[in-house]
Amino acid sequence: MRRVLIFAIFSIAAFCAFAQRGPDALALYRAGNYAEAIRVCEDEIKSRPSNLDSYVVMCWALIANREYARAEQMAYEGQKISRYDIRLIEILGEAKYYLGKNSEALKQFQEYIANTPDKTGARIDTAYYFMGEIYIRQTKFQHADIALSAATRKRTGADGWWTRLGYAREMAGNYYEAMEAYEKALELDPQRTDAINGKKRVSDRLR
Q1: End-to-end CA distance of the chain
Q2: 166 neighbors 148 (Cβ within 8 angstroms)
Q3: pLDDT tens profile 84-102
Q4: Fewest Cβ atoms nearer than 10 Å: which of 19, 158, 185, 197?
Q5: Which is it for the CA torsion 146, 122, 29, 158, positive or negative?
């Protein structure tokens, strides 16, 4: 009888602990349930305003939910807790990129890369990609080539990134190198229309 009572006590305690933890915002975010992840993070921040991870996950979910202005705002709020958290620095880069704040976004990505140990951050490839896109917006195609080359070295299977690298090289007049990038994109996805069109344009230039 005593064992049954002890087991019951432990079971109730475990259930209460689980109930207190509540939904896992990160799991919700990873499952694509962004609105619910945001709501859970809001509740977490209300109960524990110094919980930096809640700000980070909330910002990820906000960006995924295309709420870029709010993601920027919440990232700044998170930086009041930890100014140099590299996750928030990268988040600010993405939010500003989507808001069209190109120069500000570029500074954030550069800071993220500079402060990531051994250049192996979880989103280092993405940071280089966004930098490449910003340089394309600014018509700095040689710079875009450098950034997108770094991105494709980090993530070799991203056919869209190879296509953008081809475009940057094409716009810079580096047609042989552009052809290489377009061909790599088409190896990964033979049906990619923008790579097909880019390769045709470059082929015409090289005739």
Answers
A1: 90
A2: no
A3: 999 999 999 999 999 999 9
A4: 19
A5: positive
Token pair belonging to 66: 């295309």
What's the whole-model pTM score?
0.86
If you ran DSSP here, which 8-state letter would residue 119 be given? G
Residue 122: per-residue pLDDT: 83
Q: Return the structure tokens found at 90.
A: 């990268």
Quick one: CA torsion of 93, 99, 103, 105, rounded to 10 degrees?
A: 0
Is-contact 79 55, C-beta < 8 A?
no
Whether 145 contacts 174, CB under 8 Å: yes
Residues 6+ positions from 72 with CB-CB distance below 8 Å? 92, 95, 96, 99
Residues 179/201, Cβ–Cβ less than 8 Å: no
Return the structure tokens found at 50: 């110094």
CA 43 – CA 52 distance, rounded (Å):
13
What pLDDT, in 10s, does the model give residues 13-53? 433 433 344 689 999 999 999 999 999 999 999 999 999 99
Euclidean distance between CA atoms 51 and 67, whole angstroms: 21
Token couple for 121 = 């951050």
- Three-state DSSP state, 172: coil
